[in-house]
Amino acid sequence: MRITVYDGATTIGGNKIYVEESGKGVFLDFGMNFAKYGKFFAEFLSERSVRGIHDLFHLNLIPRLNIYRSDLIPSDLDMSGYPRLNVEAVLLSHAHVDHCGNIALLDERTPVIASSMSMAILKAMRDVSSPGIGSEVAYFNVREHREDDKRITRNRQVKAVQG
User: Fold this and answer.
1) pLDDT digits over 84-137, tens only?
2) What CATH number is given to the structural domain containing 65?
3) Strands (DSSP E) found in the chain
4) Which of 54, 93, 136, 153 is surrounded by the most beta carbons within 10 Å?
């Protein structure tokens, strides 16, 4: 068994712990690290959602891994040189953003395993929040790549997260 802590070891929250056995693994949480995000973003300043994971990736706010939703990867971000983990699932401890705030960035085929109460809270958070990529844990809007530039736009198609 191998355990890798991608974030959250030296701070409160931002937990991203990968437990691997025989080439398969699970993440224990995949949260937002408030201390790291606070260096770049504030109440009215956030990542550019039209650039998908571009800002988060280049600011080292998410691990440099090839495990993210393809519709969030802009055309100028080449993921081929980064490790691809065989993520079987995310085991969510509870529905606080510092534990779940980056789950929505993961490949949409990655199941999220959580209590029914946590999933209800995540759905409620998505229903009442602005449609940013970080709030799309329970369900998400599929993004489309624009051919004329490097922007990603949100369409009306909604997909449920596996669980």
Assistant:
1) 999 999 999 999 989 999 999 999 899 999 999 998 898 888 778 766 676 676
2) 3.60.15.10
3) 2-7, 16-21, 24-30, 87-91, 112-113, 139-145, 152-160
4) 136
Radius of gyration of the chain (CA): 15
Kindly state the tokens that stand for 127.
Answer: 């229903």
Residue with tokens 């229903």: 127
Q: 7 to each of 18, 35, 61, 70, 77, how far by Cα in Å?
A: 10, 11, 9, 22, 22
Q: Residue 68, Cβ neighbours under 10 Å: how many?
A: 24
91: containing domain = 2-160
Whether pLDDT at 163 is above 60: no
- CA dihedral (91, 94, 97, 98) in degrees, to 10, reads -70
- Pairwise CA distance, residues 133 & 126, whole Å: 10
CA gap 71, 136 in Å, rounded: 13
